[in-house]
Amino acid sequence: MRLLTVTSALACWALALTGCGASEDGTRVLVVGWDGATFDLLDPLVDQGELPHLAALLERGQSATLESTRIPISSAAWPTITTGVGPGVHGIYSFFQTEPDSYDVRLVSAEDVAAPPIWRVLSGRGQRSHVWGVPITYPPERIDGTLVAGMLSPFAAQYAHPAGLADDLRAKGFVPDLGVWRQDEVADLAAIEHQLDLKERELLDLASRRDWRLCMFVFKSLDVLCHRPNLSLQGPEISGLLRRLDGILGKLVEAAGPEATVVFLSDHGFRSYRRTFNLHRWLVEEGWSVQRRGESTGATSAGPLADAKASQRAARLATLDLGTSRAFADVAEGNFGAIRLNVAGREAEGVLPEGEVEAALEALTAKLRGLEFPAGVPVVQGVHRGADLYPGPLQEERVPDLIVEFAPAWRAYTDVFGPPMSAGTQPFPDHALDGVLVVAGPSIKGHGERARAQLTDVAPMLYHLMGEPVPSHLGGDPRPSLERRPRPVRRIPASEDRGMRALKGDFGEPTGAGEEEVTSRIQSIGYGG
């Protein structure tokens, strides 16, 4: 009997190493994010044997096309991933938020995220997390574990928890994930490689400690590089970076150990566009936005914010007579653009009566759906109501009224100058709706047919994989079907969840956001605002 017991134990240990029979709890989860990754970029390289570590995860796990937020933009997508709720609830849709009683905007921060991210809930439950590089996490909150903020973090600020960590990282030459990669420096692959070297060492140390329930590490470098105008997404710069990231992925998986479940994902994809749709100019030509006569030219002021989206937005609105404009263009990214109605009593100078809102939405929708170029070929493939896509207490304040989904050939943007529609010969890379999701681990079924998932599925899935109860307010699919032996999904109401008691994070003392510096860097890599 003792021999059988020992033999069984050895067999279970061997199965754990091969990923075929370890504990079904999945108590530790490693999340690795490549911001901007899409299967259109990854699959050919996997097939060619260029990304062996990602290929191994695909072979022993399950994959899904991960649909981003509409609009597919990091500022909205990552809070949706980490909180499990949409922009109407967590309150972040763009990199900027409108100031009360004004058309002016300010940069968003982690303190604007109105729903608790997963690491805050885990900390409240006594579980440790190591979080690094996730966008919209500055200022860093105090959690059980480590948090190094990502995109929007000022270089000179205290962007990491625990105290002193940011100073230690600065001394090593590390910068937050937006990095030193301004537009004129993006081609410097040596700088990107140097930052990846630094980050790799730090992350491997965290992953190997095994003191954590969740590690969530996001790499922004692919997104930064893909934003170069006229870049070929299939060119050597992109494939070389992906090979480098794949090498780091393999080391992180090894450091986390065979018993850890691995979740690999992105917040949106990338695509090249050859046609452009200027939503601002279209609204002007259609009479929804009324241009001032002989006044502002729309030029931005000189100085550090000369090219920042906040400055551009203010200049664009300055060209309009807001006292007679019924609508104006909002944020645009990829083949998505947004329209906000200038509603009386809601906007600072709103003129559209509330009783005419529904008719305005219907009229705009019909006009957009009727656009063709060339004749017989639709320009728009969907017009969505913001209230339908992203309901919640912050929907009316934060989410646009209409979200226009253009055909895949069309990139949306908003500019004072240029025609409403144009076709070029040079490809312009920008965001696309479809990101990636791969889940692999001891409890996960092997290679299967690729599915489709939503960003709001990620957080409940992570809770479930860790063996933690899913907060009952999360409506996404925890995806127990990924498991070889699916476990019942446990849910817990907020009133019984000690992790949900801290709805606001502990961000410590104000650290000085360095907003002008960050805003300038957002525009320098081509982000919408």
Give the SSE map:
Blueprint: H1 2-18, E1 29-34, H2 39-47, H3 52-60, E2 61-67, H4 74-83, H5 87-90, E3 96-98, E4 105-107, H6 118-124, E5 129-132, E6 145-148, E7 160-161, H7 165-171, H8 189-208, E8 214-219, H9 221-226, H10 236-256, E9 261-265, E10 269-278, H11 279-285, H12 309-318, E11 327-333, E12 336-341, H13 357-369, E13 380-385, H14 386-389, H15 395-398, E14 402-406, E15 410-413, E16 421-432, E17 434-440, E18 451-454, H16 458-465, E19 470-471, E20 491-492, H17 515-524
Parallel strand pairs: 1-8, 1-9, 2-18, 5-6, 5-8, 10-15, 19-20
Antiparallel strand pairs: 2-17, 3-4, 6-7, 9-17, 10-16, 11-12, 12-14, 13-14
Description:
This protein has 2 domains: 23-268 and 433-524, Alkaline Phosphatase, subunit A; 273-429, no CATH class. Helix content is 31%, strand content 20%. It contains 17 helices and 20 strands. It has helices at 2-18, 39-47, 52-60, 74-83, 87-90, 118-124, 165-171, 189-208, 221-226, 236-256, 279-285, 309-318, 357-369, 386-389, 395-398, 458-465, 515-524; strands at residues 29-34, 61-67, 96-98, 105-107, 129-132, 145-148, 160-161, 214-219, 261-265, 269-278, 327-333, 336-341, 380-385, 402-406, 410-413, 421-432, 434-440, 451-454, 470-471, 491-492. The chain has a 9-stranded mixed β-sheet with strand order 7-6-5-8-1-9-17-2-18, sandwiched between helices. Strands 11-12-14-13 form a 4-stranded antiparallel β-sheet. The chain has a 3-stranded mixed β-sheet with strand order 15-10-16. A hairpin with a 2-residue loop joins strand 11 (327-333) and strand 12 (336-341). The longest helix is centred in the middle third of the chain and has 21 residues, at 236-256. It starts with a helix and ends in a 5-residue tail after the last helix. The model is unreliable at 1-26, 179-187, 300-307 and 510-529 (pLDDT under 50).
